[in-house]
Amino acid sequence: MRRVAAGARGTRGKTRLGCILTLLLLAIGLYYGIPIGTIYVNHWRFKEEMKTQARLAPSIDDAAIRRRLRLKAEDLGLPEEARQIVIRRTLRPREIVIRTTYEQTIDLPFVHHTFTLSPEVRSPL
Questions:
Q1: Which structural domain, as residue segments, surrounds residue 119?
Q2: Does 110 fall in a domain?
Q3: Taking the model in full, what pTM does it have?
């Protein structure tokens, strides 16, 4: 005859339900998290390219910087407005400022959100 511990009775179904709920929450998190994460990863990658171009600014002109950043924005699939890059060089302090602003929208069930992203980079000349 098999003995069952007092606390183990009636927990068989609860374990399965808990596992299913955990997997469901994980799937929902991935479904909503991946598109949002992609927006922020692309924003970070674009800003890193802006930093690279700002470091190279003493040896290249604004047109070359703008061209390279537009190609990167296109490569990342950013909206057209991200390609409207503003480049300003100042004398006091001697620095370059590169910036742009764009919006990206997420359309998922129960979620419709527009993210406004404004990457800006400053670097000494």
A1: 13-124
A2: yes
A3: 0.78
